[in-house]
Amino acid sequence: MEIGVVELSRLQFAMTAMYHFLFVPLTLGLSIIVAIMETVYVMTDRPIWRQMTKFWGTLFGINFVLGVATGITMEFQFGMNWSYYSHYVGDVFGAPLAIEGLMAFFLEATFVGLFFFGWEKLSRLQHLAVAWLVAAGSNFSALWILIANGWMQHPVGAEFNPDTMRMEMTSFFDVVFNTVAQAKFVHTVSAGYVTAAVFVLGVSAWYLLKGRHIELARRSIAVAASFGLASALSVVVLGDESGYSAGESQKMKLAAIEAMWETEPAPASFTLFGIPDQEKRETKYAVHIPWVMGLIGTRSLTEEISGINELEQEHVTNIRNGLIAYDALMTIRQDRDQTPPEVRARFEAHSDDLGYALLLKRYVDDPREATDAQIAQAAEDTIPHVWPLFWAFRIMVGLGMLFIGTMAYFFYRANFKQMRFPRPALWVAVWMIPAPWIAAEMGWIVAEYGRQPWTVDGVLPTALSVSHLSVGDLLVTLAGFMIFYTVLFVVEIGLMLKYIRKGPVEDVETTAEWTKRHVRRLSTSGFDPAAESSPAPQPAE
Prior knowledge:
It comes from Pseudohoeflea suaedae. By secondary structure, this protein is mainly alpha-helical. It has three domains: 3-250 and 385-502; 263-298, no CATH class; 308-381, no CATH class. The chain has helices spanning 5-44, 47-80, 83-117, 124-153, 172-176, 179-210, 214-249, 251-257, 292-298, 308-335, 341-350, 354-358, 372-381, 386-416, 423-431, 435-449, 471-502, 508-524, 529-532; strands at residues 158-161, 166-169, 270-277, 282-289, 454-456, 460-461. The protein has a two-stranded antiparallel ribbon. β1 (158-161) and β2 form a beta hairpin. α1 packs across α6 (179-210). The relative contact order is 0.13.
């Protein structure tokens, strides 16, 4: 395949997005975990929880800063690499991005400073409020970004204006409450919560294996296991919602994820394993689980799921209808206010399929001159590459099941086995730390790669969205981004490892004062402090 401006622009944005998403999930989840820990500290007045809040808060801060650095670059790329996309849908896409910057980002950035430098300046309740505002800002930021992305997957609340040649918003409410966007938001933030829970679990397990910071590690495992189990279960439930949304609005993506070449009669089965062959349009060695895909994709046992071959033929019809809209649009552009009403009526009747006619721009300057063979080729282009989607989805789901099992095990040991953890289980937790990032990246491959050849599904093809840049310009900037982001990633890992090895800073004076107060309270209440003491905890079984 010849590498051109479109391919390099896609590669550059994919690279920056995937680098950025190395930082985002941990930021989302750690912000909540840190706020939970500080809440326990305020409620109990125990110094160990303040120590835990500060330690995990430091790791959150390192990750937050580098996430911001990579995220800002992504937004600039819309103007640099995707200028026609920005022009075509900027009225719609720009609104949630602006709100994210004005409301969520400033909220998050402002209170992050107060969180780190306000320990001695704010009261406990004030500082706790700051911690929760930081968490809210992080999640609000994700909300507006995913509303924008969800609109690209399912463009509702907007329509094409033939006089301005742009998409224009018709309902902000529909854009915000887009079912795909809402499903993506809750699924993505829940995945971030799992990422943070696995990270806290793994680091704490390492401390237990080394016999260091045992009290902090045990309590951190208890929080991570409880929070992580709830989050991992919610990811499965919300992933099912995402599958249903795809079945409603992105049927080709769902068919590609399943390597479903022919329409599957109800109730459709789920392909557990197989080797998709896109050239022959078959899946070799397929192992099916009856009914499951019917429940995920249609929420019923009576509705069929359309296969890739049938959807391709439907898209041939969409392209031909789109050509009617394109022909009317050219007349409107030429005649402007003098356009006959019947021409505008013809455009309105077929405007929903205009984007399919634009797929022909890849092969012919004027889509109306396209041959039947070019129309058939454009319809075939609507089929994404099946093999990466098929396996990315299964890796993501398999890791999700692993997270549920691991979190359930540590939750059981923490709550019913007096926080005693076998060493093999602790090593599993340590080695599992990278797994949620792999699952998250697989999820984004499914979401974004599965949308091709569209930038905005059914509206604007990717091939038309790019800026007028040279291949040389893109190669230079791509190399620059890769070097810069790799350096940032190395810095991130280095700082994380440095502070993890260093461990939490123990406030000896505060702990001693709390211990004295605690002993006095026990004595006043008639308890014998000596009787309340217990043997020193062991690091691991």
